[in-house]
Specification:
single chain; 160 residues; mainly beta; eleven-stranded mixed beta sheet
Length: 160
């Protein structure tokens, strides 16, 4: 690696915009959940190099952590047997990995852009589910060359 590139590479802070609830497509068997009231602590985050002083192992991962206060309107499905999924819409370019922890109402987990992950299974209750997520985003910093927009949302499937 050229000396100038190394200096520039490890000073860089890449930007990732996080949008919650803005994707428009949902799977046919799932219903989109109203997330009015969900708040993202930092809608635009700087991705930072995981390893700013790399050793012999090449490490290109950039990451950012943010808090998301989720409010899901479950009133249309109250007390119905349900599965709730968190979805990260596909992105152009390098895949993004999202990992999260919760306060206990929803399941912690991991997903990649273009996937969905089960975060709740059981009766849809209460009418408004409130939860805080600590979300960590990761991707390959060598391939992330411009601002990336991430669209998260929630879907529900109910059993008759």
């Amino acid at each position: 690696m050229a000396p100038g590139k190394q200096t520039t590479r490890f000073r860089a802070a890449l930007v990732c915009a996080v949008l919650w609830g803005l994707a428009t497509a949902a799977q046919a068997t799932s219903s989109r959940i109203d997330e009015t009231g969900t708040v993202v602590s930092e809608p635009v985050v700087n991705m930072k190099w995981r390893n700013v002083a790399p050793g012999r192992v090449r490490e290109n991962t950039v990451e950012a952590t943010l808090r998301v206060d989720v409010r899901l309107n479950l009133a249309p499905w109250i007390n119905q047997s349900s599965r709730i999924y968190m979805v990260l819409a596909p992105v152009t370019g390098e895949r993004v990995r999202a990992r999260w922890t919760t306060q206990g109402r929803l399941l912690p987990g991991t997903l990649y852009s273009g996937e969905r992950a089960l975060v709740y299974q059981g009766p849809a209750s209460p009418a408004t589910l409130v939860e805080s997520l600590l979300l960590t985003l990761e991707t390959d910093g060598e391939r992330l060359t411009q601002m990336q927009t991430l669209n998260f949302y929630f879907e529900i499937e109910v059993s008759p």
